[in-house]
Amino acid sequence: MQIVTFEEADSMPSKGEGYTSTVHNYYGRVKSMHVGPQAFLVHMPDEGSTIRPHFHDVDQFQVVVGGGGRMGPEAIGPVAFHYADAYTPYGPIIGGRDGIEFFTIRAQCVGGFFPMP
User: Fold this and answer.
1) The predicted structure's pLDDT at residue 27
2) How far is CA 87 from the centre of its chain?
3) How far is CA 86 from the centre of its chain?
4) Which residues face 89 on adjacent strands?
5) Could you tell me which of 109, 85, 110, 105 has the C-alpha nearest to residue 36?
6) CA 22, CA 49: separation in Å to the nearest integer?
7) Which stretches of 1-117 are DSSP H helices?
8) Strands 93-106 and 38-44: what pairing?
């Protein structure tokens, strides 16, 4: 068994259209191709931060652990679980008053972020 603490996670700023975040990589690394799983914590501290609707080419789980907001039409907050099949669009993810913080967990590395038109 491998255990990774918050202090051991590789932290990096991440910016997209409509949001600024800090990503804490526990397994694998966001925006980097590799073999094996991905697990990372996304912290979007600003109210209204928005990750637009998109899909990935692998199945994934997301677990909201801080703040709150909306995922698609649904209000979310801690502790909420979300599952998306590969190639299935979801979103937008919108940070609430206290922003939003969520883990993304994938059995394998994604081949990309595919925004919806």
Assistant:
1) 87
2) 16
3) 15
4) none
5) 109
6) 12
7) none
8) antiparallel
Cβ distance 19 to 52 under 8 Å? no
Whether the Cβ atoms of residue 73 and residue 94 lie closer than 8 Å to each other: no
Q: How far apart are CA 36 and CA 52, in angstroms?
A: 26
pLDDT tens for each residue of 4-61 = 888 999 899 988 888 999 999 998 888 777 678 999 999 999 999 999 999 999 999 9
Instruction: Supply 38's token pair.
Output: 């991905």
Give the C-alpha separation, 76 to 85, whole Å.
19
Task: Please give the Cα distance from 88 to 82 (Å, whole number).
Answer: 12
8 A C-beta contact, residue 101 and residue 44: yes
Distance (Å, rounded) from C-alpha 12 to C-alpha 60?
Answer: 21
Of 26, 105, 25, the residue nearest 58 (C-alpha): 105
Look at residue 94 and tell me whether its pLDDT is greater than 90. yes
DSSP state of 90: B
Q: What is the CB-side half-sphere exposure of residue 112 using CA atoms within 13 A?
A: 4
